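Its record is set out here:
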Amino acid sequence: MKRWAAGILAITLLSCFLCGCSIEKVKAGNGVKPEYTVMKEEDFPEKVKELIEEHKETEFQLTYQDSGYLYLMKGYGKQQTGGYSIQIEDLSLWENAIHLQTVLIGPEEGQELTEEPSYPCLVVKMKYREEPVIFE
C-alpha cells in the first residue's frame, strides 16, 4: 500500500513540474519593422559597456532593458585584425518575438589593417518590448 501511495505521489509531483513548462512556436508573421537606433560606442550606457567588456572575447548575443528602452547586443568575438563591421540583415517584429539577423563583414581586399585584434560588436536601441529576442 505504501509503494502504491508513493507511486501516485511521484506521478502527481512529476505532472506538476511538467505543467509549468510550455513550448510556443515562433511565427514570422508580417515582420513589421520597428524604429531603432544603431548606437555609437561613446553613447552606450555604462551597464551595456560592462556587459560587452565581460563577453567580448567570444561571440555573444545579449539584451538589456533600462529606462523604457531595450538594448540588443551582438558581438562576434575576437578577430585577429581590425577592419571588421557588422551589418543588420533584418530587424523586425514577428508575431510573438523580435528578430535580429546580422552578418559579420570582413576587411575589404587591399584595406590597410591594424595588427591589433578587434572585437566587433553592435548595439541596437529600441523602445522596450516584452517579446523574446531571436538572434541569427
Remarks:
- The two ends are 54 Å apart (CA to CA).
